[in-house]
Amino acid sequence: MTVPVKLDIEKICPWSGARAGQLHTPHGTIETPVFMPVGTQSTVKALTWPQVEAAGSQIVLANSYHMYLRPGHRLVEAAGGLHKWSNWKHPILTDSGGFQVFSLHDLRKISEDGVAFKDHISGTEHFIGPSKSMEIQNALGADIIMAFDECVKNPATREDARLAMERTHRWLEVCVEAHNRSADQALFGIVQGSIYEDLREESAAAVTSFDLPGFAIGGVAVGEERSLIEKITLFTTPLLPANKPRYLMGVGTPWDIWFAVRCGIDMFDCVLPTRLARHGAAFSQGGRISLKTSKFREDWAPLDPACQCYTCRNHTRAYIHHLVHVKEMTAATLLSIHNIQYLHAEATAARQAILSGTFEAEFQKRAGARDASLQPSST
Predict the structure, then answer these.
(1) Does the N-terminal peptide bond of residue 241 adopt cis geometry, omega within 30 degrees of 0?
(2) What is the residue extent of each domain of the chain?
(3) Is the dihedral of CA 338, 286, 217, 168 positive or negative?
(4) Which residues on neighbouring strands pair with residue 95, listed in sequence order?
(5) Pick from 100, 113, 340, 379: most CB atoms within 10 A?
(6) CA separation for the pair 181, 188 (Å, rounded)
(7) Which of the four CATH numbers 3.40.50.800, 3.40.50.12780, 3.40.50.720, 3.20.20.105 does domain 6-270 have?
């Protein structure tokens, strides 16, 4: 059987199990660990593809829920799939639409067959279940597609978490049966179970019983404390097959990346870098900074002195503060370039540390400064 996605592991850190590898896909090989920018509507907000490429992106995400509603998966299919539709020539991953549907709360109703919901903009009624999700994602044509799952927000009771987990397992079986492009699209299963370790263990056993090309940890960073996110990631990752890609869904701060890699994760994504950019914020070695504040009005330094992105090589904090202050669209572009390249640089540094045998020392150095990476800078 043809395997559309294959992970070759180059080196494993003996201290932690962190891995450096190469992920082969129909649209190119990805060096792992890898951060994946989110291109919700088949574009990374505020950026052109050359800017996304120049920032170091090897793979991007698109959102099945949004592409299904507008412009419609059949139109994208008629255009030749997401790659030709958008003219992104590198690998693409699509999520199943499950998280977006379940986040609608009052606009949706869950049944054994799937989820009935209303379009959050038009109010039009729709239904997506595991078979429909596969239809949508097969039409979109991404290299990696995700099983349709039920994600509960935290805090969740054990009973709610169990019911969602068990439904996720039943839906995975339907996804496997309905997926009709297994030769060129890799279907990843998703482990659920909320914050409960016994449920995570049960879910990992059920999901990995399917011989899929890769596996993901879902249902984290959905309302729980950071310590619980880290606890569940550290507990669950070793339960996933060591010879296949491991994907932690929806995390994306500099510390998140290092901690995920430390656990043995290969892939991670988040909307955070571009969302922060649209709100005038940037990552830096001193922590997150807000360019809205007046202290940057006469600051002639780059966003981060060590960063080599286009923004930091060409513009000052003072200039970007001005753009943010006057609500100029270019501010979101410049900050998005920086934030995405900053996270790519973190993933690359982790990879290089694994290959050079210095990962433990580099991880401990960042662990000592992790609070600063999550808080506004005082400088």
Answers:
(1) no
(2) 6-270, 277-374
(3) negative
(4) 63
(5) 340
(6) 13
(7) 3.20.20.105
Question: Three-state SS for 61?
Answer: strand
Token representation of residue 155: 């805090």
Q: Tens of pLDDT along 59-77?
A: 999 999 999 999 999 999 9
State the DSSP code for 253: S
Q: Which H or E run includes 183?
A: none
- Inter-residue contact 141 to 150 (CB < 8 Å): no
User: Between the CA of residue 111 and those of 65, 133, 218, what are the distances in Å?
Assistant: 18, 15, 20
Neighbours of 166 (CB within 10 A): 16
CA distance 249 to 185: 19
What does the alpha-carbon distance between residue 119 and residue 70 come to, in Å, rounded to a whole number? 10
Please list the active-site residues: 95, 269
Q: Which of 147, 125, 151 is nearest to 137 (CA)?
A: 147
Whether the pTM exceeds 0.70: the reply is yes
Query: How far apart, in whole angstroms, are the C-alpha atoms of residue 306 and residue 312?
Result: 9
Asked if 350 contacts 362 with a C-beta cutoff of 8 angstroms, the reply is yes
CA pair distance 10, 18, nearest whole angstrom: 11
pLDDT, tens digit (0-9, with 9 covering 90-100), for 268-279: 999 999 999 999
Query: Is 11:325 a contact under the CB 8 Å cutoff?
Result: no
